[in-house]
Amino acid sequence: xxxxxxxxxxxxxxxxxxxxxxxxxxxxxxxxxxxxxxxxxxxxxxxxxxxxxxxxxxxxxxxxxxxxxxxxxxxxxxxxxxxxxxxxxxxxxxxxxxxxxxxxxxxxxxxxxxxxxxxxxxxxxxxxxxxxxxxxxxxxxxxxxxxxxxxxxx
Length: 154
Fold this sequence. Notes:
By secondary structure, this protein is mainly α. The chain is 85% helix and 0% strand. Helix 1 (18-93) runs antiparallel to helix 2 (98-152). The longest helix is centred in the middle third of the chain and has 76 residues, at 18-93.
C-alpha cells in the first residue's frame, strides 16, 4: 500500500515525451487529410482546365479551317460573278435590237439568281459543317465530365 494506505501501487506512467509525440502524429494525420483532399481537388481542377483548354484549341483550329474555306468559297463566288458580268458586258456590246438587249439582261438576271441560290446554299452547308465540327470538342469534354460526375456519385 502506499503512504496513505487506501490504494495499491500505482502503475507506471508513460514517459512524458511519448505522449506529446503521439498527439503531434495524430494532429499531423488529421491535418494531412484535408491537405491531401485539397491537393486532389487542385489536381482535378488543373486536369479539367487542361482538358477545356485542349477542347478550345481544337475548336479554334476547326474554326480557322472553316473561316478559310468560307473565305475561299466567297472569293470563288465573287470571281464567277465578275466573269459572268464581263461576259454579259461583251454580249451587251454585240446587241443590235431591243429584244436582244432584254434577252441578255434576262439571262444575266436568271444566272445571277441561280448563282446566288447555289452560293448561299453552299455557304450555309459549310457554316453548318464547321459549326458542328467546332462544337464537337466541347460536347466530348462535357460528356466526359458528366460521366466522371455520375461515376463519383454527384
